[in-house]
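Input sequence (174 aa), recorded before submission:
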Amino acid sequence: QTLLTASFETRTSLDTDNPALHHVIDTKRFSTLDKLFRVTAYVCRFIHTLRNPSTESAELLTAAEIIAAEQLWIRSLQRHYYSKEIQGQKTCLVRQLRLIIDKNGILRAKHRIENASLQYSAKFPILLPPNDHFTSLLIKKAHSSLMHSGTLSTMTHIRKIYWKVCGNVFEAPL
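Predicted structure, token format:
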């Protein structure tokens, strides 16, 4: 899966170092996270096709394209909200969460459980901004996928992969 993602990312045309992805595609125009990722993947494919007209692409999106779109959004949001931390400045957030940057350029929190036999995403959750519409869409998706089982279940499910700064409670409406 990571090899597919890496090969797709080498051909995506949106500049991942540009923190203005949310200015190009407005997250508030989307009601679900899946729609946002699919539209982003189609935009990346369209731009790639314009720049490389000789390449052919499948009619349907691949899993690698959708995963790459998700990573593109996460990197863009992190560069927008946590630029100082990514540049290596020792902020209180870096000291408290012991932040690291993974091989995909995504900022992650390093917990005391790093030696536990858990999945990588549980040991090093992805850092998310607290008051962005993207985070609200993510919470909404988790809540729906858990069959509306409640706040505690939703928070537990999300914390397996993501870490939201600003307290221990997810404030977004479910």
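Checked by second reader. The two ends are 31 Å apart (CA to CA).
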